[in-house]
Amino acid sequence: MSRAAVKIITALAALLLAGCRPDMFVQPKSNPLKASDFFADGGASRPLPDHAIARGHLELDEPLYTGKIGTNLAATLPVPLNIELLRRGRERFDINCSPCHGRTGEGNGMVALRGFPAPPTFHQERLRDAPIGHFFDVITHGYGVMHPYAQRVELKDRWAVAAYIRALQLSQNARPNDAPAAERAKLESK
Predict the structure, then answer these.
(1) CB under 8 Å, gap of 24 or more: what pairs does 146-150 form?
(2) To 10 degrees, the CA torsion angle through 38, 39, 42, 46?
(3) Is the pLDDT confidence value at 24 over 70?
(4) CA nearest to 168, candidates 141, 135, 144
(5) Distant-in-sequence, close-in-space partners of 36: CB < 8 Å, separation ≥ 6
(6) Per-residue pLDDT tens over the stretch 106-132
(7) How many Å from the N-terminal Cα to the C-terminal Cα in the chain?
(8) How confident is the model at residue 25 (pLDDT cuts 50, 70, 90)?
C-alpha cells in the first residue's frame, strides 16, 4: 500500500472518529423514580397535574374496570346479563378455572387432586354472600396461592366468569322459592 493510500485511510478514520462524540452515547436523561438535581424536590418524576386529560384508553367506568365502587366491591354486574355472557363465562371458566376449581366450583379440579392446595368451594356461605365484584377482583389480582389472571383473561371475560360463578352457586344452592311461581307449581306437583 502506498504512503498516499495510508494517509487517505488515516484521514478518513480520523474524520469518522471525530463524528462520534461521547455525548451522543451519554445523553442527559432522567430515570423515573430516581434522584435528579433538575427539580427543587430532587425527584425526576412529576405528578400528573390536576384535570389532566388522558390520551388513549380512558377507564371512566370504575365498576367495570376495577370491580369496585370507591373502596367497596361492586354488588351488581356492570355488564348486561344474558345467555351469551353465561355461555362465554362457562367457556372461560372451563379453560382457566376448572383445572383448580373443578367444573362445578367445588374446588376439586385436577390440580387439587394432584396434591396442590385445594381452592375453597364456591358453594360455601362466605362466597355465596360475597359481592360479584369479589370474584372479578380475585380473577384480576389473584388471592392466596392463586395468581392474577388479568393478563390471561380479558376484562369482559372476567365479568363473564364472575357471572357464571354466580350461576354455579345458584345451581347448587337454589330453593323452590327462588323459582318463578309457574315453575314452582310444576316443582311442587312432582
Answers:
(1) 146/100, 146/119, 149/96
(2) -120
(3) no
(4) 135
(5) 30, 42, 43, 44
(6) 999 999 999 999 999 999 999 999 999
(7) 108
(8) low
